[in-house]
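ok so dumb question maybe but i'm new to this and my supervisor (M.) told me to 'just get the structure for TrpR YerC/YecD' and walked off. so i did the thing. is this what she meant?? sequence i used:
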Amino acid sequence: MSKNIRTHAVDYLFEAILSLKSQEECYTFFEDICTVNELLSLSQRFEVARMLRDHKTYLEIAEKTGASTATISRVNRSLNYGKDGYDMVFSRISDYKEDEFSEGEEIKND
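this is what came out, is it supposed to look like this??
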Protein backbone atom coordinates (compact mmCIF):
# COMPACT_ATOMS: atom_id res chain seq x y z
CA MET A 1 0.00 0.00 0.00
CA SER A 2 1.46 3.37 -0.95
CA LYS A 3 1.48 6.42 1.27
CA ASN A 4 -0.58 9.43 0.33
CA ILE A 5 1.94 11.95 -0.95
CA ARG A 6 -0.73 14.50 -1.90
CA THR A 7 -0.32 16.95 0.91
CA HIS A 8 -0.24 20.74 1.11
CA ALA A 9 3.51 20.60 1.72
CA VAL A 10 4.12 18.48 -1.39
CA ASP A 11 1.84 20.76 -3.44
CA TYR A 12 3.89 23.73 -2.26
CA LEU A 13 7.16 21.98 -3.16
CA PHE A 14 5.88 21.14 -6.66
CA GLU A 15 4.72 24.73 -7.10
CA ALA A 16 8.26 25.85 -6.25
CA ILE A 17 9.76 23.38 -8.74
CA LEU A 18 7.36 24.48 -11.47
CA SER A 19 8.44 28.10 -10.90
CA LEU A 20 12.03 27.30 -11.94
CA LYS A 21 12.84 28.75 -15.34
CA SER A 22 16.23 27.33 -16.30
CA GLN A 23 18.63 24.51 -15.65
CA GLU A 24 20.80 26.95 -13.71
CA GLU A 25 17.85 27.82 -11.45
CA CYS A 26 17.29 24.09 -10.95
CA TYR A 27 20.89 23.66 -9.84
CA THR A 28 20.57 26.59 -7.44
CA PHE A 29 17.32 25.33 -5.91
CA PHE A 30 18.13 21.63 -5.76
CA GLU A 31 21.59 22.20 -4.31
CA ASP A 32 19.87 24.05 -1.47
CA ILE A 33 16.97 21.66 -0.92
CA CYS A 34 18.77 18.32 -1.41
CA THR A 35 21.99 16.88 -0.16
CA VAL A 36 24.48 15.98 -2.86
CA ASN A 37 23.73 12.28 -2.27
CA GLU A 38 19.96 12.83 -2.58
CA LEU A 39 20.38 14.65 -5.87
CA LEU A 40 22.79 12.02 -7.19
CA SER A 41 20.34 9.27 -6.15
CA LEU A 42 17.53 10.94 -8.08
CA SER A 43 19.68 11.38 -11.16
CA GLN A 44 20.90 7.79 -10.89
CA ARG A 45 17.33 6.45 -10.80
CA PHE A 46 16.41 8.60 -13.78
CA GLU A 47 19.38 7.29 -15.75
CA VAL A 48 18.50 3.72 -14.75
CA ALA A 49 14.97 4.27 -16.08
CA ARG A 50 16.31 5.63 -19.37
CA MET A 51 18.61 2.67 -19.78
CA LEU A 52 15.83 0.20 -18.96
CA ARG A 53 13.65 1.85 -21.61
CA ASP A 54 16.56 1.38 -24.02
CA HIS A 55 16.49 -2.35 -23.18
CA LYS A 56 19.88 -2.41 -21.45
CA THR A 57 20.58 -5.37 -19.17
CA TYR A 58 20.81 -5.05 -15.40
CA LEU A 59 24.53 -5.78 -15.69
CA GLU A 60 25.06 -3.00 -18.24
CA ILE A 61 23.06 -0.57 -16.11
CA ALA A 62 24.88 -1.51 -12.91
CA GLU A 63 28.26 -1.10 -14.59
CA LYS A 64 27.38 2.27 -16.14
CA THR A 65 25.52 3.83 -13.20
CA GLY A 66 26.82 2.01 -10.14
CA ALA A 67 23.21 1.28 -9.14
CA SER A 68 22.49 -1.86 -7.17
CA THR A 69 20.26 -4.54 -8.66
CA ALA A 70 17.71 -3.66 -5.95
CA THR A 71 17.60 -0.05 -7.21
CA ILE A 72 17.37 -1.19 -10.83
CA SER A 73 14.56 -3.56 -9.89
CA ARG A 74 12.63 -0.81 -8.05
CA VAL A 75 12.94 1.52 -11.04
CA ASN A 76 11.89 -1.30 -13.38
CA ARG A 77 8.81 -1.93 -11.22
CA SER A 78 7.92 1.77 -11.46
CA LEU A 79 8.32 1.68 -15.24
CA ASN A 80 6.10 -1.38 -15.53
CA TYR A 81 3.50 -0.79 -12.82
CA GLY A 82 3.80 2.87 -11.87
CA LYS A 83 1.83 5.88 -12.98
CA ASP A 84 3.79 6.39 -16.25
CA GLY A 85 5.61 9.44 -14.91
CA TYR A 86 8.91 8.36 -16.40
CA ASP A 87 7.32 7.82 -19.82
CA MET A 88 5.59 11.19 -19.68
CA VAL A 89 8.87 12.98 -19.01
CA PHE A 90 10.92 10.90 -21.45
CA SER A 91 8.47 11.69 -24.24
CA ARG A 92 8.98 15.39 -23.56
CA ILE A 93 12.77 15.23 -23.55
CA SER A 94 13.18 12.57 -26.22
CA ASP A 95 15.96 14.49 -27.93
CA TYR A 96 18.27 14.02 -24.91
CA LYS A 97 20.76 11.33 -25.92
CA GLU A 98 22.94 8.94 -23.92
CA ASP A 99 26.08 10.30 -25.55
CA GLU A 100 25.48 13.59 -23.73
CA PHE A 101 27.03 11.86 -20.72
CA SER A 102 30.76 12.06 -20.93
CA GLU A 103 32.49 8.78 -21.66
CA GLY A 104 33.28 7.01 -18.43
CA GLU A 105 31.00 9.26 -16.37
CA GLU A 106 29.38 7.16 -13.72
CA ILE A 107 26.38 8.16 -11.69
CA LYS A 108 27.32 6.46 -8.44
CA ASN A 109 25.31 6.83 -5.33
CA ASP A 110 23.73 3.62 -4.15
